Amino acid sequence: MGRLDGKVALITGADSGIGQGTAVEFAKEGADVLINYLHDEQGAQSTRTQVEQVGRRAVVVQGDVGDEADVIALVQAALTQLGGLDVLVNSAGVDASGTQVADTEVADFVASLRTNLIGPLLTCKHFIRHRRAQGGGGKIINVTSVHEEIARAGGADYDCGKGALRNLTRTLALELAEDGINVNNLAPGMVLTPFNQPALDDPEVLEQQTASIPMKRAAKPAEIGRLAVFLASSDSDYVTGSSYVMDGGLMQNQGQGA
Fold first, then answer.
1. What pTM was computed for the model?
2. 230 within domain boundaries
3. CB 3.0–4.6 Å: which of 13, 106, 110, 206 could bond 19 by disulfide?
4. Residues 149, 152, 158, 161, CA torsion sign
C-alpha cells in the first residue's frame, strides 16, 4: 500500500464514520489532516486525537460544505496551518429521508443535495484552483454509495445525490487528466457508522440488515479508509474516473431469487 508521507489531506465530514476512519488511516501512512465537521465537534476532536496518537498533525475546522465561503476557509486553513493541500476526500453527507417522491417537499430535497452534491462540487472547485496554481497534481476521492447505482424506495434524495456525484467524478476525471489530478470515488455498501446507528446499538437489527449481504457483515470505517489510502497514493497515479465498490458482495446479490 502506498505511503502518504508529507501529504496534506482535507477530509470533509471527518467527525465520525468513513471520514474519521479515513483520517486515521491516512495519518498512519504519513499524512497530516484537516478535519472538517459541521455539528459534531466532539467527534472531530476524537478524530484529531487519533491522528495525533500516530504522530501526525491535525487541524479541526467547523464548516458547511454547502457554503462556498466556508469551503474557501477550509482550503485556506489547510494552506496556512498545515502548509499545503494534496488530497481532498469528500465524505460529508446526509442519509436518505425515507420520504417517497409523492410526499417530498422540494426544500427538503434541495437541502439533501446541498450537502451530498453541491458540497463536493464546491470543495472540488477550490481544491482544483489551488492544485493548478501549484502546477497540477493531486488526488480527489468522492465518497458515494452503492446507491449511486441501485435505488431504494424513499431514497430519491440520497440516490439522486450519489448518482450525480458519480457522474461529477467522471466529468472531473476528463477535465483534470492533463493536470495530473486523479479523481475517483468510493461506493460503500453498509458501513458501521452513525448512519446505521440502530444496527450499532442492537445485534438483532444488525443481523437483519446484513442478511442480504453475501459476507453477512457490514464494513468497518477503517476498511474503507484503507482503499482511500490507495487512491490517495502514487500507486493510483494511472487510475481516474473509476468507482470502487466495497459492499461485501451486496450488489452481486441483487438478482437472486428473481
1. 0.93
2. yes
3. 13
4. positive
Our CA angle for 35, 155, 121, nearest 5°, is 40
CA distance 130 to 179: 12
**Does a structural domain hold residue 250?**
no
**Strand partners of residue 139:** 87, 182
| pLDDT on residue 219 | 77
Residue 63 φ then ψ, to 5°:
180, 150
> What is the tens place of the pLDDT at every residue in 134-185?
999 999 999 999 999 999 999 999 999 999 999 999 999 999 999 999 999 9
SS3 at position 114: helix
Angle CA(143)–CA(33)–CA(42) in degrees, nearest 5?
85
Residue 116 three-state SS: helix
CB 29, CB 227: distance < 8 Å: no
**In a 3-state reduction of DSSP, which class is residue 134?**
coil
Neighbouring CB atoms inside 10 A of 58's CB total 25
CA distance 144 to 215: 21
The answer to whether residue 64 sits within a structural domain is yes
Question: 3-class SS at 38?
Answer: coil
CATH number, position 128: 3.40.50.720
43 grid coordinates? 467527534
Residues annotated as catalytic are 158
| Separation of alpha carbons 35 and 47, rounded Å | 8
Whether 132 and 140 have beta carbons less than 8 Å apart is answered as no
The residue segments making up the domain with residue 101 are 8-245
The helices-and-strands tally (H runs, E runs) of the chain is 9, 7
Number of domains the chain contains: 1
How many angstroms separate the CA atoms of 38 and 146, rounded?
24
Query: CA-to-CA distance for 180 and 240, rounded, in angstroms?
Result: 10
